[in-house]
């Protein structure tokens, strides 16, 4: 598990750790969560951990099935599209139940299986209250080279983008999205679009507007004043024992994919990013089908021809297994 820091903080009994993966579709989340559950459920650990998992996809799939059973004339997709708000309410309810299951004699782990492209701060504010006993560890891909095309940036590498697509192409039996689904490619690039110009470091910022002020390089006086204000806020949070974005949130890199190949953004890929991803509206399926479908099909056909989904990249599941073992044994990196 790579990190710039050498100091580890061990998981301790009496604390609650929220674990979430910031990954793309088919980006390694399930493998990571499965390893956490498997290793914490081992015979030697059965009395050590209190582990709960809350999956937004599973909740939505269950609600969709329930609606479809009551409305035989509706398709699963129609039901799926209608239960979004109910899913959000049930997700929050299950998260709170997981928090309430706190055991002071065990290491409490809550696996948060939900996609939060740029809204994780609201979740933390809602559920994380205690400075000394609640910690949020965000696992991000250990990538080689983020995509950077002048004004079009992504926190993921082209390596990662390609591998997640190849995994999606061969995915079957998932409760929400599979490779054979008609709109799978459109959903995939829509989700990717949500990370445009996103910086993982923003996850540790408790207020994006305040961060913008703090990072305003064109007004040094405002930036200095904001830093002083934030310092006072941190002292107040510490005094009151409140959960702090600066001190209670950690970023940890995981080898979700094989980054050993240094894949550069070629001319054809850059053209696709500029002509499609930069201009498209995420999850507007009518717009995507009417204005970008041809370009999308052509681009992914090029990927299909260029990369073998089974042999083009190394399997990283054993690496993830070792990194989970390191997390549970040695802890997470202090930032």
User: Can you write the helix and strand succession as a string?
Assistant: EEHEHHHEHEEEHHHHHEHHHHE
Separation of the first and last Cα atoms: 14 Å
- From the spread of the alpha carbons, the general shape counts as globular
Which segments are poorly predicted (pLDDT under 50) over 5 or more consecutive residues? 1-5, 206-218
- CATH fold-level name: Rossmann fold
| Strand proportion | 5-15%
- Helix percent band: 40-55%
Structural class of the secondary structure composition? alpha/beta
Tell me the name of the CATH homologous superfamily.
P-loop containing nucleotide triphosphate hydrolases
Q: Trace the largest sheet across and list its strands.
A: 3-4-2-5-8
Task: Give the tally of β-strands.
Answer: 9
Cα radius of gyration in angstroms: 21 Å
The CATH class, by name, is Alpha Beta
If helices are DSSP runs of H or I spanning 4 or more residues, what is the number of helices?
14
Query: What is the count of distinct domains?
Result: 1
């Amino acid at each position: 598990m790579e990190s710039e820091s050498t100091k580890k903080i061990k998981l301790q009994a009496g604390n609650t750790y929220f674990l979430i993966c910031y990954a793309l579709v088919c980006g390694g989340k399930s493998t990571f969560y499965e390893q956490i559950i498997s290793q914490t459920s081992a015979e030697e650990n059965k009395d050590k951990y209190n582990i709960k998992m809350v999956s937004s996809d599973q909740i939505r799939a269950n609600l969709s099935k329930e609606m479809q059973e009551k409305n035989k004339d509706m398709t699963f997709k129609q039901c799926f599209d209608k239960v979004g708000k109910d899913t959000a309410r049930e997700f929050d309810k299950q998260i709170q139940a997981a928090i309430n299951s706190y055991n002071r004699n065990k290491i409490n782990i809550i696996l948060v299986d939900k996609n939060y492209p740029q809204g994780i701060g609201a979740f933390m504010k809602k559920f994380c209250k205690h400075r000394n006993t609640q910690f949020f560890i965000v696992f991000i891909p250990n990538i080689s080279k983020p995509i950077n095309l002048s004004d079009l940036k992504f926190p993921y590498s082209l390596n990662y983008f390609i591998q997640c697509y190849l995994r999606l192409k061969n995915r079957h039996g998932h409760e929400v999205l599979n490779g054979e689904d008609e709109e799978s490619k459109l959903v995939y690039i829509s989700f990717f679009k949500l990370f445009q110009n996103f910086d993982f470091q923003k996850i540790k910022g408790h207020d994006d507007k305040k961060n913008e002020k703090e990072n305003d390089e064109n007004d040094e006086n405002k930036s200095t004043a904001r830093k002083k204000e934030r310092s006072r806020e941190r002292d107040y949070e510490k005094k009151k024992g409140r959960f702090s974005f600066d001190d209670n949130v950690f970023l940890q890199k995981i080898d979700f994919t094989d980054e050993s190949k240094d894949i550069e953004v070629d001319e054809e890929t850059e053209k696709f990013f500029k002509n499609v991803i930069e201009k498209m509206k995420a999850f507007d399926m009518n717009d995507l089908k009417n204005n970008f479908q041809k370009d999308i099909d052509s681009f992914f056909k090029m990927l299909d021809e260029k990369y073998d989904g089974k042999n083009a990249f190394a399997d990283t599941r054993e690496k993830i297994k070792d990194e989970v073992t390191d997390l549970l044994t040695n802890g997470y990196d202090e930032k």
